[in-house]
User: Which sequence fits this backbone?
């Protein structure tokens, strides 16, 4: 999902709220114009300050009605469809106002204002939505918010799509490559486009593609964090809540990778920002004391900064409190060291020791209580990580991942996650991947809250912590 599209979708909420309040204020002003007063004298006693307070509250209820009516769907609908939803939503909203007026007649004694709010809200919201839509379309002509896609399948269907996108760039799709089949050569070509930030998604339009090729393409799109679309009846297995588009007169189905696209991504990012700020304030004294203790035990840099692989395979600088001796990382590649102490994750891309001799005395305490992970809160705040997600792994570990294991890179790595609360180091790597994939495919806000509540219990009882 393009950030520009997410931005405009999220922007609709405050814009609608402002427009609804303005509609109510305009209705109030209209009631006191000489033309309306000549028709019917003002008989109610409602000052503007009180009216504005009531309006501010009622606008929130209307926003809820708008959300239930589907006016904040990530995928744009036709303008006519959106207008119908606006009329229905505003009508429902005014019904709520009339319901309240039934019990509080002294606050809503002007039927003119109520009806005027209904009419103005429909007109103003419709104009606002149209202007936002036109702004998005105008920006697409400059490349902002465009979904750059590669079409797989030089078929009649594929050519029809390509011609349609070229004729109507405001739709939001730009074809950057058109390939006959998905093979190793095509894969490398798509990777080059991805590295240059010229590719956002793949459209499969080849009815002759076999199951193996389709599955390889879907796995590739997940690993590289690309949107995946396919013509109806092409995909052999059920996708989770597939999204159907009608393009060039034919149904095109998008396979979502995770509910963490769209509003899920907006909610999770907001949740991360708020909670990370709270946790940063609450845990700062603990972080300070641990930092001083580590410095006294072993003077020098108290932080361990190393490359980790994040969302979409992008590397970032991961920061934790130093809990090991200096240059501890090199021992993982020392054959003598591995022979002497072994590897609990032997046969997998990971390296783990049950009783790691590289850990210092203070380091063992901060690791057991997961205090060494507190600096990750700042990475969450910056957007490099999430509070909940798959475990962040080293580049050399990810290099050895099997294709299906790389699907954990679909979302941001987390400070905690299903694997961490489900066994931590006691799990083998395949079990860890299965738990992470379950989280990715079945995410919802309650799941994040449950994992967040379970995490301190796991830390306290030390299950799977080495």
Assistant:
């Amino acid at each position: 999902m393009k950030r520009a599209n997410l931005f405009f979708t999220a922007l609709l909420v405050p814009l609608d709220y402002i427009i609804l309040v303005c509609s109510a204020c305009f209705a109030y002003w209209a009631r006191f114009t000489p033309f309306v007063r000549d028709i019917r004298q003002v008989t109610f006693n409602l000052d503007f300050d009180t009216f504005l307070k009531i309006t501010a509250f009622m606008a929130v209820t209307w926003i809820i009605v708008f959300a239930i009516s589907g006016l904040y769907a990530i995928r744009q609908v036709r303008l006519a469809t959106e207008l119908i939803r606006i009329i229905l939503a505003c009508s429902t909203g005014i019904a709520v106002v009339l319901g309240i007026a039934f019990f509080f007649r002294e606050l809503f004694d002007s039927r003119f204002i109520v009806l005027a709010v209904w009419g103005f809200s429909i007109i103003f919201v419709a104009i606002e939505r149209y202007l936002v839509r036109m702004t998005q379309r105008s920006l697409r002509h400059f490349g902002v918010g465009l979904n750059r896609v590669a079409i797989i399948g030089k078929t009649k269907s594929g050519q029809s799509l390509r011609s349609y996108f070229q004729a109507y760039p405001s739709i939001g799709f730009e074809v950057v490559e058109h390939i006959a089949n998905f093979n190793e050569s095509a894969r490398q070509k798509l990777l080059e486009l991805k590295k240059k930030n010229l590719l956002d998604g793949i459209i499969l339009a080849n009815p002759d593609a076999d199951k193996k090729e389709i599955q390889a393409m879907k796995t590739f799109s997940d690993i590289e964090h690309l949107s995946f679309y396919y013509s109806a009846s092409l995909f052999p297995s059920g996708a989770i809540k597939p999204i159907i588009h009608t393009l060039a007169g034919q149904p095109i189905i998008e396979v979502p990778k995770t509910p963490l696209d769209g509003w899920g991504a907006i909610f999770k990012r907001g949740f991360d920002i708020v909670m990370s700020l709270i946790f940063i304030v609450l845990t700062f004294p603990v972080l300070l004391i641990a930092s001083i203790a580590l410095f006294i035990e072993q003077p020098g840099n108290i932080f361990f900064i190393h490359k980790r692989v994040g969302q979409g395979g992008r590397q970032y600088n991961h920061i934790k409190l130093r809990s090991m001796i200096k240059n501890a990382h090199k021992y993982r590649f020392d054959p003598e060291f591995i022979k002497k102490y072994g590897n609990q994750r032997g046969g997998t891309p990971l390296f783990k020791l049950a009783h790691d001799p590289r850990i210092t005395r203070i380091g063992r305490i901060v690791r057991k209580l997961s205090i060494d992970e507190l600096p990750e809160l700042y990475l969450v705040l910056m957007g490099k990580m999430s509070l909940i997600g798959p475990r962040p792994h080293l580049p050399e570990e990810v290099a050895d991942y099997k294709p299906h294991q790389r699907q954990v890179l679909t979302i941001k790595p987390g400070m905690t996650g299903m694997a961490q609360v489900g066994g931590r180091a006691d799990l083998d790597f395949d079990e860890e991947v299965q738990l992470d994939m379950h989280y990715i495919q079945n995410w919802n806000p309650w799941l994040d809250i449950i994992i967040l509540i379970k995490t301190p219990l796991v830390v306290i009882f030390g299950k799977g912590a080495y």
In short: The beta strands are 147-152, 173-179, 201-204, 227-231, 243-247, 250-255, 303-309, 315-321, 386-388, 414-416.
